[in-house]
Design goal:
By secondary structure, this protein is α+β, with helices and mostly antiparallel strands. The chain contains 13 helices and 13 strands. β3 and β4 form a beta hairpin. The radius of gyration is 29 Å and the shape is elongated. It is found in: Cell membrane.
């Protein structure tokens, strides 16, 4: 460790340059992690916060667009409710609409139609829960756009008016659109294209988007009986608009970033270790073991990586806090940031270890002779 610290102190400029690169990589890692979490929250936080185990969609519906294409008869709800292990089942409706408040605020909404009093009926942070037709409870993020309790939202172009009676405590979004809960019958009329004053056909009240299921049950067996296509809640995230494409793209970027990080850090330590080749050969000639050289270089790398990654982490958190206050979908969570930082340290140490092992295996006499 003495040699490692001595070398760090002696070659400050060289290590500062390496540390700057690691700091920038750690900074980028934090920002990418925050963007990934933010996009996921903006895409499916409305689903994540539902007390649901699975959704049963229309049979053979396209899985990547099930929420927008599925239509199931309400009698499927009873079939699922009687399945072994199911503790509750309720119809669920989903439609994306454009609306304008009586104060002139234009807003896109994902309407979640639920039966009032069912396990899908949400608790509110402010105001009151759903109690009658044409009432809506909106996401906190919708309220931040200027829609408040007591406002009237008019859907375009149908002209259906909805009264805002409550605001949810947290962010509830679906496909980057704010969620608004409303009674199932109101949702069915809107999804059926019924305009104010129109006579409502009876079949409008017979369907929903999916059956929401709570409990531990055999979904495949349930599908055979109910004639549906069920997905777990996590699998159903992929049925929300753009979710799979966004998460796949970000995952690919993260994989490339980690691979590039390992290559860059490993290359830095390889060059550094090769520059110390003759110094290490002298130490080997004096009787130092390969294990001693490995520990010395790994500790040196660890000090550099921890200090540099810590600086990048701090800068990333500060930048992330600033970005979180903007409309950009960005969210800092300790778990993903800690995992990304730990992975960066592990890849950096692995690259350093490979470089040291390569040099430490050289015969000291040959290494010393090469200097002549």
């Amino acid at each position: 460790m003495f040699l490692a610290l001595r070398d760090l102190s002696f070659a400050r400029g060289r290590f500062a340059l390496m540390g700057l690169v690691v700091t920038l990589i750690a900074f980028l890692t934090v920002l990418l992690s925050g963007l990934s979490v933010g996009l996921v929250n903006d895409g499916v936080s409305g689903l994540q916060r539902m007390p649901v185990t699975a959704f049963a969609f229309q049979a053979d519906v396209a899985k990547d667009s099930a929420f927008s294409r599925s239509a199931v008869d309400l009698d499927r709800v009873g079939v699922w409710a009687r399945r072994p292990g199911v503790t509750a089942a309720a119809p669920f409706g989903n439609t994306l609409v454009n609306a304008r408040s009586n104060k002139g605020v234009e807003i896109d909404l994902a309407l979640f139609g639920v039966q009032t009093g069912s396990f899908l009926d949400p608790d509110v942070g402010r105001g009151s829960r759903l109690a009658g037709d044409r009432e809506v409870v909106i996401s906190r993020t919708a309220a931040e756009q200027g829609v408040e309790i007591g406002d009237t939202l008019t859907l375009e172009p149908a002209g259906t008016a909805l009264n805002v009676v409550g605001v949810l405590a947290d962010q509830h979004t679906f496909g980057h659109v704010d969620v608004a809960y409303l009674p199932l019958s109101s949702w069915q009329e809107i999804a059926g294209g019924v305009r104010p004053g129109d006579e409502v056909p009876e079949h409008v009240y017979s369907q929903a988007t999916a059956v929401a299921i709570r409990g531990d049950t055999d979904l495949a067996a349930g599908d055979r009986v109910a004639g549906t296509s069920a997905m777990t809640l996590k699998d159903a995230f992929g049925a929300s608009p753009g979710y799979t494409a966004e998460t796949s793209t970000l995952l690919l970027i993260q994989v490339f970033l980690y691979a590039i990080s390992a290559l860059v850090v490993g290359a830095f330590f390889t060059v550094l270790t090769i520059q110390r080749k003759h110094e290490l050969a002298v130490i080997r000639a004096l009787g130092a073991s390969t294990g001693y050289l490995l520990r010395d270089s790994i500790l040196q790398s660890l000090v550099l990586l921890v200090v540099s990654a810590g600086a990048g982490l701090g800068l990333g958190v500060l930048a992330g806090a600033a970005l979180s206050s903007t409309p950009m979908p960005f969210a800092l969570e300790a778990g993903p940031i800690a995992a990304a930082t730990a992975l960066l340290l592990a890849l950096g140490l692995a690259g350093a270890a490979v470089a040291v092992v390569r040099v430490a295996r050289v015969d000291p006499l040959i290494a010393l002779g090469a200097n002549r």
